[in-house]
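User: Let's play a game. I give you a shape written as C-alpha coordinates, and you guess the letters that built it. Ready? Here's round one.
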Protein backbone atom coordinates (compact mmCIF):
# COMPACT_ATOMS: atom_id res chain seq x y z
CA UNK A 1 0.00 0.00 0.00
CA UNK A 2 1.55 3.29 -1.12
CA UNK A 3 0.22 6.64 0.16
CA UNK A 4 1.30 10.10 -0.93
CA UNK A 5 -0.28 13.53 -0.33
CA UNK A 6 0.83 16.19 -2.85
CA UNK A 7 -1.22 19.39 -2.35
CA UNK A 8 -1.85 20.47 -5.92
CA UNK A 9 -2.73 24.09 -6.65
CA UNK A 10 -5.88 24.01 -8.78
CA UNK A 11 -7.49 27.20 -7.43
CA UNK A 12 -9.96 25.36 -5.19
CA UNK A 13 -9.29 24.92 -1.44
CA UNK A 14 -8.95 21.19 -0.94
CA UNK A 15 -7.52 18.32 0.98
CA UNK A 16 -6.20 15.80 -1.51
CA UNK A 17 -4.94 12.28 -0.97
CA UNK A 18 -3.38 10.50 -3.92
CA UNK A 19 -3.28 6.85 -2.97
CA UNK A 20 -2.73 3.41 -4.40
CA UNK A 21 -4.85 0.90 -2.52
CA UNK A 22 -5.08 -2.42 -4.34
CA UNK A 23 -6.50 -5.39 -2.46
CA UNK A 24 -7.18 -8.98 -3.52
CA UNK A 25 -10.63 -8.96 -1.88
CA UNK A 26 -11.79 -5.96 -3.91
CA UNK A 27 -11.79 -6.14 -7.71
CA UNK A 28 -10.57 -2.60 -8.35
CA UNK A 29 -8.21 0.01 -6.93
CA UNK A 30 -8.70 3.27 -5.03
CA UNK A 31 -6.56 5.93 -6.74
CA UNK A 32 -7.45 9.26 -5.12
CA UNK A 33 -9.75 10.79 -2.53
CA UNK A 34 -10.22 14.58 -2.36
CA UNK A 35 -12.28 16.98 -0.27
CA UNK A 36 -13.02 20.37 -1.92
CA UNK A 37 -14.41 23.66 -0.56
CA UNK A 38 -15.61 25.84 -3.43
CA UNK A 39 -16.19 29.58 -3.73
CA UNK A 40 -18.67 31.16 -6.16
CA UNK A 41 -15.81 32.06 -8.52
CA UNK A 42 -14.36 28.56 -8.74
CA UNK A 43 -14.62 26.76 -12.09
CA UNK A 44 -13.07 23.37 -12.73
CA UNK A 45 -12.03 23.41 -16.39
CA UNK A 46 -12.76 20.49 -18.75
CA UNK A 47 -10.56 17.47 -18.01
CA UNK A 48 -10.61 13.68 -18.00
CA UNK A 49 -9.47 10.83 -15.76
CA UNK A 50 -8.33 7.35 -16.71
CA UNK A 51 -10.33 6.06 -13.76
CA UNK A 52 -13.96 6.35 -12.70
CA UNK A 53 -14.71 9.44 -10.58
CA UNK A 54 -17.34 9.48 -7.84
CA UNK A 55 -18.47 12.96 -6.76
CA UNK A 56 -20.36 13.21 -3.46
CA UNK A 57 -21.94 16.54 -2.46
CA UNK A 58 -21.48 17.27 1.25
CA UNK A 59 -23.34 20.59 1.12
CA UNK A 60 -24.22 23.51 -1.11
CA UNK A 61 -25.10 23.33 -4.79
CA UNK A 62 -23.40 23.28 -8.15
CA UNK A 63 -23.26 21.66 -11.55
CA UNK A 64 -21.09 19.10 -13.32
CA UNK A 65 -21.12 19.14 -17.11
CA UNK A 66 -20.30 15.98 -19.07
CA UNK A 67 -21.15 14.81 -22.60
CA UNK A 68 -23.09 18.02 -23.20
CA UNK A 69 -25.37 17.47 -20.21
CA UNK A 70 -25.62 19.60 -17.06
CA UNK A 71 -26.09 17.69 -13.80
CA UNK A 72 -27.35 19.93 -10.99
CA UNK A 73 -26.22 18.55 -7.66
CA UNK A 74 -27.04 19.25 -4.02
CA UNK A 75 -26.32 17.70 -0.61
CA UNK A 76 -26.44 13.91 -0.54
CA UNK A 77 -26.15 13.47 -4.33
CA UNK A 78 -23.58 11.27 -6.03
CA UNK A 79 -22.60 11.50 -9.69
CA UNK A 80 -20.43 8.84 -11.30
CA UNK A 81 -18.28 10.00 -14.22
CA UNK A 82 -17.01 7.18 -16.39
CA UNK A 83 -13.31 6.81 -17.28
CA UNK A 84 -12.05 9.16 -20.02
CA UNK A 85 -15.32 11.16 -20.07
CA UNK A 86 -14.52 14.88 -20.30
CA UNK A 87 -16.21 16.91 -17.57
CA UNK A 88 -16.10 20.28 -15.82
CA UNK A 89 -17.77 21.81 -12.76
CA UNK A 90 -19.08 25.15 -11.50
CA UNK A 91 -20.39 26.16 -8.07
CA UNK A 92 -23.71 27.84 -7.33
CA UNK A 93 -23.05 31.63 -7.04
CA UNK A 94 -24.88 31.99 -3.70
CA UNK A 95 -24.46 28.53 -2.20
CA UNK A 96 -21.21 26.96 -3.50
CA UNK A 97 -20.83 23.27 -2.89
CA UNK A 98 -18.50 21.30 -0.69
CA UNK A 99 -17.72 17.88 -2.07
CA UNK A 100 -15.70 14.68 -2.07
CA UNK A 101 -14.26 13.19 -5.23
CA UNK A 102 -13.02 9.61 -5.28
CA UNK A 103 -11.07 8.09 -8.17
CA UNK A 104 -11.58 4.35 -8.58
CA UNK A 105 -10.13 1.97 -11.15
CA UNK A 106 -12.52 -0.91 -11.80
CA UNK A 107 -9.78 -2.99 -13.52
CA UNK A 108 -11.76 -3.56 -16.72
CA UNK A 109 -8.91 -5.48 -18.35
CA UNK A 110 -8.49 -7.69 -15.31
CA UNK A 111 -12.20 -8.46 -15.29
CA UNK A 112 -12.17 -9.41 -18.96
CA UNK A 113 -9.18 -11.67 -18.45
CA UNK A 114 -10.60 -13.30 -15.30
CA UNK A 115 -14.42 -13.13 -15.05
CA UNK A 116 -14.26 -14.92 -11.70
CA UNK A 117 -12.89 -11.72 -10.14
CA UNK A 118 -16.21 -10.24 -9.11
CA UNK A 119 -16.12 -8.20 -5.91
CA UNK A 120 -18.98 -6.06 -4.66
CA UNK A 121 -17.48 -3.06 -6.48
CA UNK A 122 -17.88 -4.93 -9.76
CA UNK A 123 -21.45 -5.85 -8.82
CA UNK A 124 -22.14 -2.13 -8.42
CA UNK A 125 -20.50 -1.25 -11.75
CA UNK A 126 -22.41 -3.93 -13.64
CA UNK A 127 -25.70 -2.69 -12.24
CA UNK A 128 -24.70 0.90 -12.96
CA UNK A 129 -23.95 0.05 -16.60
CA UNK A 130 -27.43 -1.45 -16.91
CA UNK A 131 -28.99 1.57 -15.24
CA UNK A 132 -27.34 4.15 -17.48
CA UNK A 133 -27.60 2.03 -20.65
CA UNK A 134 -24.21 3.62 -21.43
CA UNK A 135 -25.80 6.91 -22.58
CA UNK A 136 -26.39 9.14 -19.55
CA UNK A 137 -24.95 9.30 -16.04
CA UNK A 138 -27.92 9.65 -13.71
CA UNK A 139 -27.61 11.25 -10.28
CA UNK A 140 -27.89 8.90 -7.32
CA UNK A 141 -29.86 10.91 -4.77
CA UNK A 142 -30.14 10.73 -1.00
CA UNK A 143 -26.84 9.07 -0.14
CA UNK A 144 -26.29 10.88 3.20
CA UNK A 145 -25.09 7.65 4.88
CA UNK A 146 -22.01 7.64 2.66
CA UNK A 147 -20.80 11.03 3.92
CA UNK A 148 -19.56 9.75 7.29
CA UNK A 149 -17.87 6.79 5.62
CA UNK A 150 -15.94 9.11 3.30
CA UNK A 151 -14.78 11.23 6.24
CA UNK A 152 -13.64 8.10 8.10
CA UNK A 153 -11.96 6.76 4.96
CA UNK A 154 -9.99 9.99 4.50
CA UNK A 155 -8.96 10.03 8.18
CA UNK A 156 -7.85 6.40 8.03
CA UNK A 157 -5.75 6.92 4.91
CA UNK A 158 -4.15 10.07 6.35
CA UNK A 159 -3.13 8.55 9.69
CA UNK A 160 -1.42 5.15 9.55
CA UNK A 161 -2.75 2.87 12.26
CA UNK A 162 -2.72 -0.81 13.14
CA UNK A 163 -4.93 -2.85 10.74
CA UNK A 164 -5.22 0.14 8.41
CA UNK A 165 -5.54 -1.96 5.28
CA UNK A 166 -8.42 -3.97 6.71
CA UNK A 167 -10.37 -0.89 7.78
CA UNK A 168 -9.89 0.86 4.41
CA UNK A 169 -11.18 -2.27 2.72
CA UNK A 170 -14.20 -2.31 5.05
CA UNK A 171 -15.05 1.32 4.29
CA UNK A 172 -14.79 0.76 0.53
CA UNK A 173 -16.95 -2.34 0.74
CA UNK A 174 -19.56 -0.44 2.75
CA UNK A 175 -19.66 2.35 0.16
CA UNK A 176 -20.14 -0.08 -2.72
CA UNK A 177 -22.76 -2.13 -0.87
CA UNK A 178 -24.84 1.01 -0.21
CA UNK A 179 -24.46 2.19 -3.80
CA UNK A 180 -25.28 -1.27 -5.18
CA UNK A 181 -28.47 -1.45 -3.15
CA UNK A 182 -29.52 2.02 -4.26
CA UNK A 183 -28.87 1.40 -7.95
CA UNK A 184 -30.63 -1.98 -7.74
CA UNK A 185 -33.71 -0.14 -6.48
CA UNK A 186 -33.55 2.24 -9.44
CA UNK A 187 -33.29 -0.45 -12.14
CA UNK A 188 -36.67 -1.26 -13.68
CA UNK A 189 -37.61 -4.33 -15.68
CA UNK A 190 -36.97 -2.72 -19.08
CA UNK A 191 -33.44 -1.67 -18.09
CA UNK A 192 -32.58 -5.13 -16.76
CA UNK A 193 -33.64 -6.60 -20.09
CA UNK A 194 -30.68 -4.88 -21.72
CA UNK A 195 -28.37 -7.33 -19.99
CA UNK A 196 -30.63 -10.37 -20.12
CA UNK A 197 -32.08 -10.46 -23.62
CA UNK A 198 -29.25 -12.09 -25.56
CA UNK A 199 -28.44 -14.99 -23.18
CA UNK A 200 -32.15 -15.58 -22.52
CA UNK A 201 -32.97 -15.74 -26.24
CA UNK A 202 -30.15 -18.23 -26.74
CA UNK A 203 -31.34 -20.31 -23.79
CA UNK A 204 -34.93 -20.36 -25.06
CA UNK A 205 -33.76 -21.60 -28.47
CA UNK A 206 -31.59 -24.24 -26.76
CA UNK A 207 -34.59 -25.44 -24.73
CA UNK A 208 -36.88 -25.60 -27.78
CA UNK A 209 -34.34 -27.76 -29.63
CA UNK A 210 -33.30 -30.01 -26.73
CA UNK A 211 -36.47 -30.24 -24.61
CA UNK A 212 -36.62 -34.03 -25.17
CA UNK A 213 -33.27 -34.43 -23.40
CA UNK A 214 -32.74 -34.56 -19.58
CA UNK A 215 -32.16 -30.83 -19.09
CA UNK A 216 -31.70 -29.05 -15.76
CA UNK A 217 -30.92 -25.49 -14.66
CA UNK A 218 -27.15 -26.09 -14.61
CA UNK A 219 -27.02 -27.46 -18.17
CA UNK A 220 -29.16 -24.63 -19.57
CA UNK A 221 -27.17 -21.92 -17.76
CA UNK A 222 -23.92 -23.56 -18.86
CA UNK A 223 -24.99 -23.26 -22.49
CA UNK A 224 -24.95 -19.46 -22.19
CA UNK A 225 -21.89 -19.38 -19.87
CA UNK A 226 -23.65 -17.92 -16.82
CA UNK A 227 -23.93 -19.09 -13.24
CA UNK A 228 -27.28 -20.82 -12.52
CA UNK A 229 -28.39 -18.17 -10.01
CA UNK A 230 -27.50 -15.18 -12.21
CA UNK A 231 -28.99 -16.81 -15.30
CA UNK A 232 -32.19 -17.73 -13.46
CA UNK A 233 -32.64 -14.11 -12.34
CA UNK A 234 -32.14 -12.73 -15.86
CA UNK A 235 -34.43 -15.35 -17.38
CA UNK A 236 -37.29 -14.55 -14.99
CA UNK A 237 -37.00 -10.81 -15.62
CA UNK A 238 -37.19 -11.40 -19.38
CA UNK A 239 -39.91 -14.11 -19.51
CA UNK A 240 -41.73 -13.94 -16.13
CA UNK A 241 -40.91 -17.66 -15.82
CA UNK A 242 -38.05 -19.58 -14.30
CA UNK A 243 -35.96 -21.59 -16.80
CA UNK A 244 -37.50 -24.86 -15.57
CA UNK A 245 -41.01 -23.42 -15.80
CA UNK A 246 -40.28 -22.42 -19.39
CA UNK A 247 -38.89 -25.90 -20.10
CA UNK A 248 -42.05 -27.50 -18.69
CA UNK A 249 -44.17 -25.12 -20.77
CA UNK A 250 -42.38 -26.21 -23.98
CA UNK A 251 -42.76 -29.88 -23.04
CA UNK A 252 -46.46 -29.59 -22.21
CA UNK A 253 -47.18 -27.69 -25.44
CA UNK A 254 -45.55 -30.50 -27.41
CA UNK A 255 -47.44 -33.09 -25.34
CA UNK A 256 -50.75 -31.40 -26.21
CA UNK A 257 -50.04 -31.90 -29.90
CA UNK A 258 -49.23 -35.57 -29.38
CA UNK A 259 -52.36 -36.09 -27.28
CA UNK A 260 -54.54 -34.74 -30.10
CA UNK A 261 -52.80 -36.02 -33.24
CA UNK A 262 -51.38 -39.38 -32.12
CA UNK A 263 -52.50 -42.57 -30.40
CA UNK A 264 -49.41 -42.77 -28.19
CA UNK A 265 -49.96 -43.76 -24.57
CA UNK A 266 -49.40 -41.20 -21.80
CA UNK A 267 -46.15 -42.92 -20.85
CA UNK A 268 -44.90 -42.78 -24.44
CA UNK A 269 -45.87 -39.11 -24.74
CA UNK A 270 -44.15 -38.25 -21.46
CA UNK A 271 -40.97 -39.94 -22.67
CA UNK A 272 -41.21 -38.17 -26.05
CA UNK A 273 -41.19 -34.77 -24.38
CA UNK A 274 -38.32 -35.54 -22.00
CA UNK A 275 -40.26 -36.46 -18.84
CA UNK A 276 -39.45 -39.91 -17.49
CA UNK A 277 -42.11 -40.01 -14.76
CA UNK A 278 -45.74 -40.41 -15.80
CA UNK A 279 -46.83 -39.09 -12.41
CA UNK A 280 -44.74 -35.93 -12.77
CA UNK A 281 -46.01 -35.48 -16.32
CA UNK A 282 -49.66 -35.81 -15.27
CA UNK A 283 -49.16 -33.48 -12.31
CA UNK A 284 -47.50 -30.74 -14.40
CA UNK A 285 -50.03 -31.10 -17.20
CA UNK A 286 -53.02 -30.68 -14.88
CA UNK A 287 -51.37 -27.77 -13.09
CA UNK A 288 -50.84 -25.92 -16.37
CA UNK A 289 -54.02 -26.89 -18.28
CA UNK A 290 -56.50 -27.43 -15.45
CA UNK A 291 -57.41 -30.95 -16.63
CA UNK A 292 -55.63 -34.30 -16.78
CA UNK A 293 -53.90 -35.39 -20.01
CA UNK A 294 -56.66 -37.95 -20.74
CA UNK A 295 -59.41 -35.41 -20.13
CA UNK A 296 -57.64 -33.00 -22.45
CA UNK A 297 -57.31 -35.68 -25.16
CA UNK A 298 -60.98 -36.66 -24.98
CA UNK A 299 -62.23 -33.08 -25.06
CA UNK A 300 -60.04 -31.96 -27.95
CA UNK A 301 -60.66 -35.06 -30.09
CA UNK A 302 -64.39 -34.75 -29.50
CA UNK A 303 -64.30 -31.24 -30.92
CA UNK A 304 -61.86 -31.86 -33.78
CA UNK A 305 -62.97 -35.28 -34.99
CA UNK A 306 -66.74 -35.40 -34.42
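Assistant: Ready! My guess for every position:
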Amino acid sequence: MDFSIPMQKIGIPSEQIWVTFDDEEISGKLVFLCKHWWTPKNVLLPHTHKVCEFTYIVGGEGSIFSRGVEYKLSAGDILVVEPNAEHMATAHPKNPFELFTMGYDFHQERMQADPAVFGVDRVFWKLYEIYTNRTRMPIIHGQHDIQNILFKLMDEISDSQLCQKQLIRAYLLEIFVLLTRKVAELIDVNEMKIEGKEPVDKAKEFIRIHFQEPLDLESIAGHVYLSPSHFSRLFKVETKLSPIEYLNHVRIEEAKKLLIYSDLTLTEIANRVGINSIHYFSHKFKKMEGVSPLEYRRAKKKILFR
